[in-house]
Write a structure and sequence with these properties.
37% of the residues lie in helices and 15% in strands. A seven-stranded mixed β-sheet has the order 3-2-1-4-5-7-6, sandwiched between helices. The chain has a domain of 116 residues. The protein is an alpha/beta fold and 332 residues long. The chain has 14 helices and seven strands.
């Protein structure tokens, strides 16, 4: 999934840097608490770690339930059955497709109807105990990933395109996400500064938002498909109420205090923090906060900017930025 802040392209840098510090032992606990699409947690689960995953967004919770807790195999017959469902005019079609008269053009009419059919059937199958919870989350995560591939957007859901682009004209096909084999971990859907009091482990990886863009606004359509809770929508883009999902890490006024609180209360030996050189917190501020609680180190890597940035921040000219991986070896 093309996702703001995704660490997929930086995985080698992260793994190399983290593994150069920690002494790998059996059943080490690795926490990925701004998990997003789950690529970092999935990587460490595949490496034998016991992973704790968290994100305040429910669509992220769904994706990480698949990557971090699933050890089952879903039959090809079930996938074929879901893909052959006849489309229905459900919430997605009625609110995100132009043919419904909604005025929104996030998906083609056919793909919106097919998404509704699959989404409604997943709830029905779970309710009738024809699939278990693990299968449900894996199939729902796969639907989110599959519908995102045919979204009529410029990478995020802050706006839709006027005309259906070529990739969005392709029919929606439900394809299973890769299965990660490993220890069954734990996944949370909580405010991180509340969760931190209730967990502990060896390695804590933090990838907080860097700027004022709220993920809840940029991925609100995926949130609604994941929840399928028939929310009241607002404005041209069809935003759902996300007042309870706003992150204090996206505000210059609050970010330093909540970050300090998080680091102070984290019961982990190693704390790694991904942040770039254009974030709300300066590098000096991050260092000043972290070194209060132990030994501080920093790793750096230049990388290409997320491609939607030019659409969102048109005054940005540089094609690259610098990723900083801050490390605190905490004194207990």
């Amino acid at each position: 999934m093309n996702y703001i802040g995704s660490k997929y392209s930086l995985m080698h840098f992260l793994v190399t840097s983290i593994n150069s510090v920690i002494n790998k032992k059996t059943n080490m606990v690795f926490a990925d608490l701004f998990a997003g699409t789950g690529v970092v947690g999935a990587e460490y689960r595949s490496r034998g770690f016991n992973v704790i995953s968290n994100d305040i967004q429910y669509y992220s919770y769904v994706l990480n339930k698949h990557y971090i807790t699933n050890n089952i195999t879903i039959s090809s017959d079930l996938i074929e059955y879901l893909n052959n469902l006849k489309g229905v005019e459900g919430f997605v079609y009625n609110n995100y497709c132009a043919g419904s008269g909604s005025g929104r053009n996030y998906f083609s009419d056919e793909n919106g109807k097919k998404c509704d059919a699959i989404r409604i059937e997943l709830d029905s199958l779970l309710r009738k105990n024809e699939i278990d919870e693990s299968s449900y989350y894996s199939l729902l995560a796969s639907l989110l990933n599959s519908i995102d591939k045919v979204a009529n957007t410029a990478s995020v859901y802050g706006a839709f395109l006027k005309h259906i682009k070529s990739s969005a004209q392709k029919p929606l096909v439900l394809e299973l996400l890769p299965q990660i084999n490993g220890v069954i971990g734990k996944v949370y859907n909580m405010n991180i500064n509340e969760l931190i009091y209730h967990i502990d482990g060896d390695v804590l990886y933090l990838d907080p938002p860097y700027n004022t863009r709220q993920y809840s606004a940029n991925y609100h359509v995926l949130e609604t498909i994941a929840r399928y809770d028939y929310p009241e929508l607002f404005g041209k883009s069809g935003l759902r109420d996300y007042s309870q999902q706003k992150s204090a890490y996206c505000s210059k006024r609050t970010v330093e205090d909540v970050f300090d609180d998080l680091v102070k209360n984290a019961k982990f030996k190693y704390i790694f923090v991904s942040y770039n050189n254009e974030g709300l917190m300066s590098l000096d501020i991050i260092k000043k906060i972290m070194e209060k609680y132990g030994k501080y180190t920093c790793f750096t890597q230049e990388y290409r900017r997320f491609k939607a940035d030019k659409d969102i921040n048109r005054n940005i000219s540089s094609s690259t930025t610098i990723e900083y991986l801050h490390l605190l070896e905490k004194v207990s």
